[in-house]
Structure formats: structure tokens, C-alpha cells
Design a protein that fits this description.
Residues 198-223 are annotated as: Disordered. This protein has 223 residues and is α+β, with helices and mostly antiparallel strands. Helix content is 50%, strand content 21%.
Length: 223
């Protein structure tokens, strides 16, 4: 299985998956609106053949009076590929993208009161909590739970990851400087050693000219 960011070419397959899995359906222009406005936030799950078997459609809420937050518009996984953890992975990817790209403080969603499986996933697995009940939220008149998940934990993880990345860069620079300094010292040492070789050699006790003069003096004395 592969989880990746959705592309414009995926939108029709995402809509098809939505029609198969959920009673809440959207026109194609709604998918394009999400894809063009927030291309970083929607993800698809592919099977081994590259066929889309699940998706998450997400966006950022544009409410100036509220904290920066994202919203999960739609989440679906085909029945043949459920209980594999795909829904959780899709949700985690979208939530992380909200933090990394928009510094979101929390993420919200709506879920039918009757959808027990989704409620368990959101509440028990992903850490969403019910913020309120919205009466007759759905077209058929069913109430919805409005749910939120605080993204502080993911924000801290992102800050730690960035800090570690910067630290690794700094350590890399320091290591490079140390290696360059060691190389310079080694080069200087080699030069010093090459010069010290000559310094250690003892000069000849007599130069050739002095020896020749002495020979001449010795010849005179002998004559």
C-alpha cells in the first residue's frame, strides 16, 4: 500500500471512491476547489497495482476571528481495503501537512451520530473529541457530531524535527571545519617535517676549499 499526495489526475477516482463508500457526495468542481486551493492537504491510498482504494479530502478554514485550523471534508476507504490502517494513515498525513504548511493549531470534522466505526477511529485512535452536536446537519436530517483534534503534539514534533535538522547541518559544518583544520595542520606538519630533515643534518666539519689550502701548506712545509 502507498499513501501519497493527491494530484489533479486523481480527482475523478477520488469521486468514484466517494460514491461507492459514502452517502455524502460532491460534484467534481468541489474536488477541484480543494485541489487547487490546498494541494498539500489531500491524500490518496493506492493498492499494489496503483489503483486508488481510499482518500482524504481536506482544507484550511478561512475564519479570521478563529485560530488557524484545518478541516477534514471527506474520508473514505473501499470496503475491500478496510481494517488495514489506511484511514488512520490518511488522516495523519493530512494533519501533519496542515501543521507543516499552515501551522494549524487544530483540525475539525463532522461525523454522523450513527457512524460508530468512524467515531471509534476519530475518538479512540486519532484523539478527536466531540465539541458539539449539530442538529440535522446532513441532508437526510441526521445530526452530526462536530469533533476537534488539538495538533499541539504534531506542532511540537515538527519543531523538534526542524531543530534536529538545523543541529545536523551545524554539526556537518563544524565537522567540515574540523576536517579542513586537520588537513591544514597535517599539511603544515608535513612541511615542517620536510624542513626539519635538513635542520637535523650536521654540517660538514671542513669545507673542500679549506682542505685544499691545508694541503698546500703541508706541501710547503715538506719542501
Amino acid at each position: 500500500m502507498n499513501i501519497r499526495c493527491a494530484t489533479p489526475e486523481d480527482l475523478m477516482n477520488m469521486q468514484h471512491c466517494n460514491l461507492l463508500c459514502l452517502p455524502e457526495n460532491y460534484q467534481m468542481k468541489y474536488y477541484f476547489y480543494h485541489g487547487l486551493s490546498w494541494p498539500q492537504l489531500s491524500y490518496v491510498a493506492e493498492d499494489e497495482k496503483g489503483k486508488i482504494v481510499g482518500y482524504v479530502l481536506a482544507k484550511m478554514e478561512e475564519e479570521p476571528d478563529e485560530a488557524v485550523h484545518g478541516h477534514i471534508t471527506s474520508l473514505a476507504v473501499k470496503r475491500s481495503h478496510r481494517r488495514l490502517g489506511l484511514a488512520q494513515k490518511l488522516m495523519e498525513q493530512a494533519s501533519r501537512a496542515m501543521v507543516e504548511c499552515f501551522n494549524a493549531q487544530y483540525v475539525s470534522l463532522h461525523v454522523r451520530k450513527s457512524n460508530r466505526a468512524a467515531l471509534h477511529l476519530y475518538n479512540k485512535t486519532l484523539g478527536f473529541s466531540i465539541s458539539e452536536i449539530e442538529p440535522k446537519y446532513y441532508a437526510d436530517g441526521e445530526d452530526a457530531y462536530a469533533m476537534k483534534r488539538d495538533l499541539t503534539g504534531l506542532r511540537l514534533e515538527e519543531k523538534i524535527a526542524v531543530a534536529k535538522g538545523l543541529e545536523a547541518l551545524n554539526l556537518g559544518d563544524q565537522s567540515k571545519e574540523t576536517e579542513e583544520k586537520a588537513s591544514e595542520d597535517s599539511c603544515h606538519e608535513r612541511k615542517c617535517c620536510s624542513y626539519s630533515r635538513y635542520a637535523k643534518e650536521e654540517p660538514p666539519s671542513r669545507c673542500p676549499r679549506t682542505t685544499l689550502e691545508e694541503k698546500k701548506e703541508a706541501t710547503k712545509e715538506g719542501s
